[in-house]
Queue: 2 jobs
Job 1
Amino acid sequence: MSSTAERPPSLYAPREPIFPRRVNGWFRNLKWGIMVVTLGIYYLTPWIRWDRGPEMPNQAVLVDLANARFFFFWIEIWPHEFYFVAGLLIMAGLGLFLFTSALGRVWCGYACPQTVWTDLFILVERWIEGDRNARVKLWNADWSPQKWRLRVTKWAVWLLIGLATGGAWVFYFTDAPTLAVQLATVSAPAAAYITMAILTATTFVFGGFMREQICIYACPWPRIQGAMMDERSLTVGYRDWRGEPRGKHRKAEGADDLGDCIDCMACVNVCPMGIDIRDGQQLECITCALCIDACDDVMAKIGKERGLIDYLALSDEPAERAGDKPKSVWLHALRPRVLVYTAVWSLIGIGLVFALFIRSDIEIATAPVRNPTFVTLADGTIRNAYDVRLRNKYNTPRQFRLSLTAEDPLRIALQGTNALSITVPADDTVTQRVYVMAAPRFEAATRPRTDLRLWVEDLESGDRASSATVFNGKDS
Amino acid sequence: MSEHKIDEETGVETTGHSWDNIEELNNPLPRWWLWTFYGTIAWGVLYTIFFPAWPLITQSTGGLLGFSTRGQVVDDIATYEAANAELNTALATVELASLSVENPDLHRYAVASGASIFRNHCSQCHGSGAAGGIGYPNLLDDNWLWGGDHEAIAYTVRHGIRNEADPDARWSQMPAFGDVLENDEIAAVVEHVKAISGQEHDESLLEVGAVIYDEQCSSCHGVEGKGDHEIGAPNLTDAIWLYGGDDAALTYTVVNARFGVMPNWSPRLSDAEVNAVAAYVHQLGGGETAE
């Protein structure tokens, strides 16, 4: 089966390894800051304590799957209030639209976990293996003990970061100090270990080896960007009308005819995506702005004005070619689209906060028993039954008293007790069967439907809640 | 098949078939595919050895592991029964009347398991909501033929009503008065029953009706018509009618006499299960307290 003939060209392109060089500058410092803040929030949040009383968890942020509760500082979300989470997701979606129309792919460049963790992994790589040149050399070197030592050290640190990442994740789902002790004594639930193993592996592989491939091949967001951006969106761009023709500024070559770009490749060498920004706007560019820092540095050294590579919009080109001054970034950020998105985004946010403030601490939901719709008692009284679900969102057990309002004189009784009040445990739900009765002399006993409202009152706080339902008479 | 034709372009052997001078390259199967294929064959053979597979005359081969879905169900049921054994032992001998106060957890268990037993064995006649129907008592109301406290309900479940199988079954039989009374006498006694149950009636027939009632009916239904739990005689003065309370229904009942049969559940339900059903039925809304 040997084939010596020429084969058609392969469609597979192997990854070109990328060795981003260290860079200093305003945007780099901003990104360090954002990395510290976002990773700090991620790793430390599960450890913040919040006192909710003796019967409640004291973790500030907790997704309590077993008891179906979400705790966020003073806010507690029950499963039936999931619309808050849906609202937050809508806000997150609109927020991405908002930031895209204002600042382009700012999410990709600064806040995306893939970017932040890759940045951290590259930092570790640089500490252990040295900067770009040393890393290229090490890459090409044979596998010596020295190379093994550096590689294994790097992988070990990456794995530790991955482990911390997976570990922090599971801490959000149960009491963090308890789980930490369990993990240390190998007595934690299997789900914790499996989750940690998966997240450790994905962090290790995504941040250490796949890096820009995730953005280019796996992530849908760069594609969606194509639909979101227009010629006025901010991107990182190269002022080729100022830089070209590029060339080394040697006197002999007639430097006077050359543009500002000295073709030093600084912008290419620092790029974590391995592209040349001077080729124009590309899908691969995550607008991390490191090439801006790199180029500004070079421009300062050769005594030129900064901003050969800069945040700009495609619409800037004709104006600047015509001799206009570069437009301020803020003028790009503030445009009608941005204002509309801001307005919608804020409205949803205000709505959620409003909904949070008006929600009740006690709730009642009524399900009429339909099998049968009514029962005739010996004295001719007509009785309806209702399964009433009572929610107590307080952190202490409460006494709930039930009553009803209706145009006819109806009587109420609770199954299993002669009293009209029952105890609902702290932060819990109780389902109680409630009987409503109409004496035969009243119209409600025969009328097919009588409107009825069941009330519940918390005897301690005086809170009231109600739920409308119907009473079925004999002719229903 | 001896001809080996090599494609010039690629150097790969062809299948030798030609359609309009287009030939098919005989590339080998991808290695991963081939091994997966062999793997599935091996899996299939091993499966038939370890699991039930080959059909025989009366049943299939059992497989080395002895697995069967029916066996799995049996195991599952045994697991649950073992888990509930303690609860059921306690429930079999417990004092039902005070259970909800003295042992609320066991009471909850009794009601929950009673509900599922009820749906299995009782709902065919009494309805899934226990509301009964014509001829089948409604278990939700506050009226009972044979008594509605825990003991009475458990006795009824255990021994049944008017069945030949259980010598302790509850038994009562109303005579068919069609052979005994004249038609106008029956009409009169029906008016009397309508009167004592608070319905519209014909005043002119009451005098005759009352006399006939006294002679023929009061020995079982009582002088006032309140019935008797001891002999299962229905209360005729309330608003609840097993077979209907209008003219036609009452006349039919007096002429023909009607009564239903309930099986004795003691051979099929354990003591714990009888108690569970009794606890469930008692809390449906009409349970009585023993005097």
Job 2
Amino acid sequence: MKLIYYPGCTLKNQARNFDVSTVSSMAELGVEVEELARWNCCGTVHALGSDNIMNRVAPVTNLIRVKEAQASEFMTTCAMCYNTLKRANIDVKKRPDALETINEFLYQEETKYQGDVDVLHLLEYLRDRIGFDKLAEKVKKPLAGLRVACYYGCLLVRPKEVAFDDVENPTIMEDLITALGATPVQFPLKTECCGAYHTVDKPEIIAERTDKIMGSAHEEQADLVVVSCPLCAFNLDFRQDDARRLNPDFYHLPVLYFTQLMALAFGCDDAALRFDLHHIDPQPTLAGRGLA
Amino acid sequence: MNTTLRISSSRLGGTFVAKIEKISGQKLLACYQCGKCSAGCPMAAHMDVLPNQIIRMAQLGMEKQLLATRAIWICVSCMTCNSRCPKDIRIAEVIEALRQTVLGTVNRADHLKIQELSPEAIGALPPIALISALRKQTS
């Protein structure tokens, strides 16, 4: 069984730990993941203006590449890529005139996009195609005693037409974490925005957001926070020093991708985890639970 | 001191209101100012004008004041307001239309001055941060 996989730009840069842990843990589940040939940046954000057809070209080009790979669906793990690709797909399916304009613009492409590709997020693939009960059978090293705060951020669950779980109180990551043997904690801020791209020129906003979100996870006695978005990961992990400057009582917590916890529970080696890419090293926390 | 307040409907159906409604695809007058968007906005603390006030100002055609606010650049399109609005108004789309209006002016008023960041700062940022910041804040 081959599954077409769209990694996106950041998984080939700062978030290589997200990429390698995805591929390794899928291999453990018996799913052969094939990276989409000639993929390009999705654009990272969906253009909300109805007249902005230009920003839909990048995602649609990727949908064409999926068709060229003889596939009718593909999977991505990055929440921003998922949201951008999914929304562009929904939009051009609803607006044949916009799709025609994009296909005309892409006149050098041999394949025309006709709205015939489905965009999947890895979490929904794991839940709906594999099943968390089957996934649990592959666990070699249960994450017993590990207290995990599952952070969804914005783009996995908003807007509702792209959400694969409840908009206000999603639980899909908690269900996955439970299957891996860990304990999910209550986390009231799990869908609160991290401040996203303000990290570029307004780091003071990210410091305030990180302090609030990570502080909430700490209050619930979480050992670590898991995410599905490389921008959330960057803000909540790499901006913790700024949060500490803002609030001297800020408590540092590691931030991991959900795929890293899968790889850990499936017994994958260090090369599949890449803890060297983290700002806050997860290893002492994991060692404290007998997991590293 | 005497203050004269003149109430006029002349701007309500003006070109600015029509333009924002068209780009955003939203009916501004559907808003009845419940304030739910501002109550849940994670960026509200950093805004000079709150999301419900942005909608009110847009309804009233207050073009100049609205396009000069800091708030339209602070909104990061997290969609919390959209998912909670009882009238199904997509506030984030309205704010994007306002940003697009500024960015589409003759002098292309880019809000993010990427050239002012050091190469080290840019190098440390993930591509996803840079691309989204540029897409939202530059023409």
